[in-house]
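In response to the reviewer comment on reproducibility (Comment 2.3), we provide here a single inverse folding case reported in full, input and output, so that an independent group could reproduce the run without further information from us. The C-alpha coordinates appear first.
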Protein backbone atom coordinates (compact mmCIF):
# COMPACT_ATOMS: atom_id res chain seq x y z
CA UNK A 1 0.00 0.00 0.00
CA UNK A 2 2.81 2.40 0.92
CA UNK A 3 4.60 1.64 -2.35
CA UNK A 4 1.39 2.22 -4.34
CA UNK A 5 0.78 5.55 -2.60
CA UNK A 6 4.37 6.64 -3.21
CA UNK A 7 4.02 5.73 -6.88
CA UNK A 8 0.81 7.74 -7.21
CA UNK A 9 2.42 10.78 -5.58
CA UNK A 10 5.43 10.51 -7.89
CA UNK A 11 3.19 10.24 -10.94
CA UNK A 12 1.18 13.24 -9.79
CA UNK A 13 4.28 15.35 -9.29
CA UNK A 14 5.67 14.23 -12.64
CA UNK A 15 2.40 15.20 -14.25
CA UNK A 16 2.60 18.68 -12.74
CA UNK A 17 6.10 19.11 -14.10
CA UNK A 18 5.18 17.85 -17.56
CA UNK A 19 2.22 20.21 -17.68
CA UNK A 20 4.27 23.12 -16.41
CA UNK A 21 5.95 24.11 -19.67
CA UNK A 22 5.07 27.43 -21.35
CA UNK A 23 1.47 27.08 -22.57
CA UNK A 24 0.86 27.81 -26.23
CA UNK A 25 0.07 31.48 -26.70
CA UNK A 26 0.95 32.42 -23.11
CA UNK A 27 2.84 35.55 -24.19
CA UNK A 28 0.83 36.40 -27.30
CA UNK A 29 -0.57 39.62 -25.84
CA UNK A 30 2.99 40.88 -25.29
CA UNK A 31 4.07 40.45 -28.89
CA UNK A 32 5.23 43.61 -30.63
CA UNK A 33 5.35 45.69 -27.45
CA UNK A 34 8.24 47.45 -25.71
CA UNK A 35 8.70 49.79 -22.76
CA UNK A 36 5.71 50.43 -20.50
CA UNK A 37 3.34 48.76 -22.97
CA UNK A 38 5.27 45.52 -22.61
CA UNK A 39 5.45 45.91 -18.84
CA UNK A 40 1.67 46.32 -18.60
CA UNK A 41 1.05 43.40 -20.96
CA UNK A 42 3.28 41.11 -18.91
CA UNK A 43 1.65 42.28 -15.67
CA UNK A 44 -1.75 41.37 -17.06
CA UNK A 45 -0.47 37.91 -18.04
CA UNK A 46 1.05 36.99 -14.66
CA UNK A 47 -1.21 38.84 -12.18
CA UNK A 48 -3.79 37.10 -10.03
CA UNK A 49 -1.67 34.00 -9.48
CA UNK A 50 -2.61 31.23 -7.06
CA UNK A 51 -1.18 32.30 -3.71
CA UNK A 52 0.69 29.58 -1.85
CA UNK A 53 0.36 29.86 1.93
CA UNK A 54 3.41 31.02 3.87
CA UNK A 55 3.69 27.62 5.51
CA UNK A 56 3.15 25.96 2.14
CA UNK A 57 6.43 27.41 0.92
CA UNK A 58 8.26 24.83 3.03
CA UNK A 59 6.60 21.97 1.18
CA UNK A 60 7.00 23.66 -2.19
CA UNK A 61 10.76 24.04 -1.78
CA UNK A 62 11.14 20.25 -1.92
CA UNK A 63 10.09 20.48 -5.58
CA UNK A 64 11.18 23.97 -6.60
CA UNK A 65 14.59 24.23 -4.92
CA UNK A 66 16.24 20.82 -4.57
CA UNK A 67 19.44 19.65 -6.18
CA UNK A 68 19.59 16.28 -7.99
CA UNK A 69 20.88 14.77 -4.73
CA UNK A 70 17.69 15.84 -2.94
CA UNK A 71 19.33 18.58 -0.85
CA UNK A 72 18.11 22.18 -0.62
CA UNK A 73 19.62 24.41 -3.31
CA UNK A 74 20.97 27.30 -1.25
CA UNK A 75 22.06 30.38 -3.21
CA UNK A 76 23.88 31.92 -0.22
CA UNK A 77 25.80 28.95 1.21
CA UNK A 78 27.47 25.65 0.37
CA UNK A 79 25.79 23.93 3.31
CA UNK A 80 23.47 21.11 2.22
CA UNK A 81 20.23 20.64 4.13
CA UNK A 82 17.46 18.13 3.70
CA UNK A 83 14.16 19.87 2.83
CA UNK A 84 12.43 17.89 5.58
CA UNK A 85 14.91 18.74 8.35
CA UNK A 86 17.02 21.64 9.51
CA UNK A 87 14.37 24.36 9.40
CA UNK A 88 15.39 27.29 11.54
CA UNK A 89 14.52 28.07 15.06
CA UNK A 90 17.54 29.86 16.46
CA UNK A 91 20.93 30.01 14.78
CA UNK A 92 24.42 31.02 15.85
CA UNK A 93 26.49 30.34 12.75
CA UNK A 94 26.32 29.27 9.13
CA UNK A 95 25.30 25.64 8.92
CA UNK A 96 22.85 25.65 11.85
CA UNK A 97 19.61 25.68 9.85
CA UNK A 98 17.80 27.03 6.78
CA UNK A 99 14.81 29.34 6.36
CA UNK A 100 12.81 31.42 3.85
CA UNK A 101 14.74 34.26 2.24
CA UNK A 102 12.73 37.09 0.70
CA UNK A 103 15.13 38.42 -1.90
CA UNK A 104 12.83 41.47 -2.03
CA UNK A 105 12.67 42.02 1.75
CA UNK A 106 9.30 41.91 3.44
CA UNK A 107 9.80 45.33 5.01
CA UNK A 108 9.93 46.83 1.53
CA UNK A 109 6.36 45.70 0.80
CA UNK A 110 5.09 45.97 4.39
CA UNK A 111 4.64 42.19 4.64
CA UNK A 112 1.74 42.23 2.17
CA UNK A 113 0.32 38.69 2.06
CA UNK A 114 0.61 38.00 -1.67
CA UNK A 115 4.28 38.91 -2.26
CA UNK A 116 5.20 37.45 1.15
CA UNK A 117 4.75 33.93 -0.20
CA UNK A 118 5.48 34.50 -3.90
CA UNK A 119 7.86 31.70 -4.83
CA UNK A 120 9.45 33.69 -7.61
CA UNK A 121 11.38 35.77 -5.09
CA UNK A 122 11.39 33.56 -1.97
CA UNK A 123 14.21 31.02 -1.77
CA UNK A 124 15.43 28.60 0.91
CA UNK A 125 18.77 29.81 2.31
CA UNK A 126 21.01 29.29 5.31
CA UNK A 127 19.42 31.10 8.25
CA UNK A 128 22.60 32.74 9.53
CA UNK A 129 23.62 34.05 6.09
CA UNK A 130 20.06 35.22 5.51
CA UNK A 131 20.33 37.10 8.79
CA UNK A 132 23.56 38.74 7.65
CA UNK A 133 21.89 39.85 4.44
CA UNK A 134 19.04 41.26 6.56
CA UNK A 135 17.07 43.75 4.43
CA UNK A 136 20.08 45.35 2.78
CA UNK A 137 19.91 46.01 -0.97
CA UNK A 138 21.92 43.92 -3.35
CA UNK A 139 25.06 45.51 -4.71
CA UNK A 140 28.76 44.99 -5.31
CA UNK A 141 31.41 44.86 -2.58
CA UNK A 142 35.21 45.20 -2.68
CA UNK A 143 36.07 45.00 1.02
CA UNK A 144 33.55 42.72 2.74
CA UNK A 145 32.90 42.80 6.45
CA UNK A 146 31.35 39.33 6.16
CA UNK A 147 31.76 36.51 3.60
CA UNK A 148 29.66 33.35 3.59
CA UNK A 149 30.93 29.87 2.85
CA UNK A 150 30.06 30.14 -0.84
CA UNK A 151 31.54 33.64 -1.24
CA UNK A 152 28.48 35.87 -0.81
CA UNK A 153 29.59 39.19 0.69
CA UNK A 154 28.31 41.98 2.92
CA UNK A 155 29.92 45.42 2.87
CA UNK A 156 29.82 48.95 1.52
CA UNK A 157 28.54 49.29 -2.02
CA UNK A 158 30.97 50.17 -4.81
CA UNK A 159 28.33 50.09 -7.55
CA UNK A 160 27.94 53.54 -9.09
CA UNK A 161 24.91 55.35 -7.70
CA UNK A 162 24.81 53.92 -4.18
CA UNK A 163 27.20 53.98 -1.21
CA UNK A 164 25.30 52.20 1.57
CA UNK A 165 25.77 48.70 2.93
CA UNK A 166 24.79 45.94 0.49
CA UNK A 167 24.83 42.19 0.04
CA UNK A 168 26.53 40.68 -3.02
CA UNK A 169 25.61 37.13 -4.08
CA UNK A 170 28.10 35.01 -5.98
CA UNK A 171 28.24 35.39 -9.77
CA UNK A 172 26.43 32.10 -10.34
CA UNK A 173 23.20 33.49 -8.89
CA UNK A 174 23.32 37.17 -9.82
CA UNK A 175 21.21 36.63 -12.91
CA UNK A 176 18.70 34.56 -10.91
CA UNK A 177 18.24 37.42 -8.45
CA UNK A 178 18.06 40.04 -11.21
CA UNK A 179 15.28 38.12 -12.94
CA UNK A 180 13.48 37.70 -9.61
CA UNK A 181 13.54 41.49 -9.24
CA UNK A 182 12.32 42.08 -12.79
CA UNK A 183 9.44 39.70 -12.04
CA UNK A 184 8.54 41.48 -8.80
CA UNK A 185 8.56 44.90 -10.45
CA UNK A 186 6.20 43.72 -13.19
CA UNK A 187 3.99 41.36 -11.17
CA UNK A 188 3.16 44.04 -8.59
CA UNK A 189 3.08 47.00 -10.96
CA UNK A 190 0.06 49.15 -9.99
CA UNK A 191 -0.59 46.87 -6.95
CA UNK A 192 1.98 48.48 -4.65
CA UNK A 193 0.06 51.29 -2.94
CA UNK A 194 1.00 50.09 0.54
CA UNK A 195 4.64 49.37 -0.23
CA UNK A 196 7.59 51.33 1.13
CA UNK A 197 10.90 52.33 -0.37
CA UNK A 198 14.51 51.27 0.10
CA UNK A 199 17.95 52.16 -1.15
CA UNK A 200 17.21 49.96 -4.15
CA UNK A 201 13.49 50.39 -4.75
CA UNK A 202 10.57 52.80 -4.66
CA UNK A 203 7.47 50.66 -4.11
CA UNK A 204 7.62 48.12 -6.97
CA UNK A 205 9.90 50.30 -9.09
CA UNK A 206 13.63 49.55 -9.15
CA UNK A 207 15.84 52.60 -8.82
CA UNK A 208 18.02 53.59 -11.77
CA UNK A 209 21.39 52.61 -10.26
CA UNK A 210 20.05 49.21 -9.24
CA UNK A 211 18.34 48.60 -12.58
CA UNK A 212 21.58 49.26 -14.46
CA UNK A 213 23.36 46.77 -12.21
CA UNK A 214 20.61 44.13 -12.46
CA UNK A 215 20.46 44.37 -16.25
CA UNK A 216 24.22 43.81 -16.31
CA UNK A 217 23.93 40.88 -13.89
CA UNK A 218 21.23 39.34 -16.06
CA UNK A 219 23.42 39.65 -19.16
CA UNK A 220 26.52 38.27 -17.43
CA UNK A 221 24.72 35.33 -15.80
CA UNK A 222 22.32 33.96 -18.44
CA UNK A 223 19.32 31.77 -17.63
CA UNK A 224 20.46 28.40 -16.30
CA UNK A 225 18.76 25.01 -16.39
CA UNK A 226 18.18 25.45 -12.65
CA UNK A 227 16.08 28.54 -13.34
CA UNK A 228 14.18 26.87 -16.17
CA UNK A 229 13.32 23.90 -13.97
CA UNK A 230 12.36 26.17 -11.09
CA UNK A 231 10.17 28.33 -13.31
CA UNK A 232 8.30 25.23 -14.49
CA UNK A 233 7.94 23.91 -10.94
CA UNK A 234 6.66 27.23 -9.57
CA UNK A 235 4.17 27.45 -12.44
CA UNK A 236 2.76 24.15 -11.18
CA UNK A 237 2.07 25.82 -7.83
CA UNK A 238 1.18 29.42 -8.70
CA UNK A 239 -0.16 29.09 -12.25
CA UNK A 240 2.00 31.99 -13.41
CA UNK A 241 5.50 32.22 -14.79
CA UNK A 242 8.54 34.47 -14.62
CA UNK A 243 8.60 36.08 -18.09
CA UNK A 244 12.25 37.07 -17.68
CA UNK A 245 13.30 33.44 -17.48
CA UNK A 246 11.20 32.46 -20.50
CA UNK A 247 12.24 35.59 -22.43
CA UNK A 248 15.35 37.24 -20.92
CA UNK A 249 15.28 39.85 -23.68
CA UNK A 250 12.12 41.35 -22.17
CA UNK A 251 14.19 43.07 -19.45
CA UNK A 252 16.07 45.34 -21.82
CA UNK A 253 13.00 45.73 -24.01
CA UNK A 254 11.28 47.34 -21.00
CA UNK A 255 14.04 49.17 -19.11
CA UNK A 256 16.85 49.87 -21.58
CA UNK A 257 16.17 53.04 -23.55
CA UNK A 258 18.91 52.07 -26.00
CA UNK A 259 17.46 48.65 -26.75
CA UNK A 260 17.20 47.85 -30.45
CA UNK A 261 15.48 44.72 -31.66
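Designed residues, in position order:
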Amino acid sequence: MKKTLATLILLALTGVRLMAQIPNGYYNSANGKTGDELKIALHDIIKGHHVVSYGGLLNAFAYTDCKPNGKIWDIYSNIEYSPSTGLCGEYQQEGDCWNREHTWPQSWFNENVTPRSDLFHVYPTDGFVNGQRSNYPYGEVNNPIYTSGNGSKLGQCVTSGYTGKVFEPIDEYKGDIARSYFYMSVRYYSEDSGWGSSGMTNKSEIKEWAMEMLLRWSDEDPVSQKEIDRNNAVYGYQNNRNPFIDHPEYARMIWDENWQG
